[in-house]
């Protein structure tokens, strides 16, 4: 189990789903945790209560990841609340599908803004605060490497972009003792992709272990990368998809 005692983490988009599980797992490992959310203050407050119940400091910051000023403000607020920053987890993401031919410009822009630009800007704002042993963990998707179905083209593209972002930034920050990695979830039971949703059975058939992942499965990989065991892993991807991409 990674020991994150004394570490300070910011997890974006952590009022629900994978982000909430990551925030709680980091706190369980000993970190103080700030989270951002967009539209669910009650759910965010519940996550903060969970962090505090583990004996750690927690804080929730409303910040739309589509808004550059809000992203920068949220990083500064997290640093202020926690007294610094050691770990940034870029988790906030949205999925909007449909054939490219008929996709609306606003949906294409929203995916690019939240799934790509916010990761660039949150990382940029966090870098001056990260020191030796610092960590950036991006949340990609198994679709970043293999698009096994139609109708999810732009979303998949947005996650592929995070691979080169992760690799490039690992080259910039590795010499400063800061690692940058990406975790690729496969089908994971959340509001975005419920295990009992209309799209679930087709995805389940592609997963060799035969079942959806839980948010805690993704959180476990993030906690490992964030901890001392991850110190030699840089610019890498860990796929947590039950074998879908094998
Ligand atoms: P959910 O939709 O269940 O939860 C999304 C979280 O992100 C919520 O906390 C939500 O906050 C927040 N969020 C959404 N939009 C914004 C925004 N504009 N600004 C700030 N916060 C925002 O998603 P998941 O937990 O399933 O997904 C988490 C990450 O994992 C995403 O990057 C997703 O692409 C990726 N992923 C998920 C997979 C899956 O099968 N679930 C598979 C592969 C990748 P609020 O409650 O306020 O709306």
Automatic annotation (TrEMBL):
<dbReference type="InterPro" id="IPR002347">
    <property type="entry name" value="SDR_fam"/>
</dbReference>
<protein>
    <submittedName>
        <fullName>SDR family oxidoreductase</fullName>
    </submittedName>
</protein>
<dbReference type="InterPro" id="IPR036291">
    <property type="entry name" value="NAD(P)-bd_dom_sf"/>
</dbReference>
<dbReference type="GO" id="GO:0016616">
    <property type="term" value="F:oxidoreductase activity, acting on the CH-OH group of donors, NAD or NADP as acceptor"/>
</dbReference>
<dbReference type="Pfam" id="PF13561">
    <property type="entry name" value="adh_short_C2"/>
</dbReference>
<comment type="similarity">
    <text>Belongs to the short-chain dehydrogenases/reductases (SDR) family.</text>
</comment>
């Amino acid at each position: 189990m990674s020991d994150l005692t004394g570490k300070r983490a910011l997890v974006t988009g952590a009022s629900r789903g994978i982000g909430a599980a990551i925030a709680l797992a980091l706190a369980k490992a000993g970190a103080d945790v700030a989270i951002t959310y967009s539209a669910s203050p009650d759910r965010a407050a519940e996550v903060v209560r969970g962090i505090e119940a583990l004996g750690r400091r927690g804080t929730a910051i409303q910040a739309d990841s589509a808004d550059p000023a809000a992203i920068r403000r949220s990083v500064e607020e997290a640093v202020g609340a926690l007294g610094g920053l050691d770990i940034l987890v870029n988790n906030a993401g949205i999925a909007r599908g449909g054939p490219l031919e008929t996709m609306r410009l606003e949906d294409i822009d929203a995916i690019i803004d939240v799934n790509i630009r916010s990761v660039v800007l949150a990382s940029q704002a966090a870098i001056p605060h990260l020191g030796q042993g610092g960590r950036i963990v991006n949340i990609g998707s198994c679709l970043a490497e293999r698009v096994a179905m139609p109708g999810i083209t732009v979303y998949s593209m947005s996650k592929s972009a995070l691979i080169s972002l992760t690799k490039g930034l690992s080259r910039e920050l590795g010499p400063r003792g800061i690692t940058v990695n990406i975790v690729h979830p496969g089908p994971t039971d959340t509001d975005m992709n419920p295990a009992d949703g209309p799209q679930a059975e087709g995805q389940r058939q592609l997963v060799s272990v035969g079942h959806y992942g839980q948010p805690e499965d993704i959180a476990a990989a993030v906690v490992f990368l964030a901890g001392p065991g991850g110190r030699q892993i840089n610019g890498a991807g860990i796929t947590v998809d039950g074998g879908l991409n094998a």
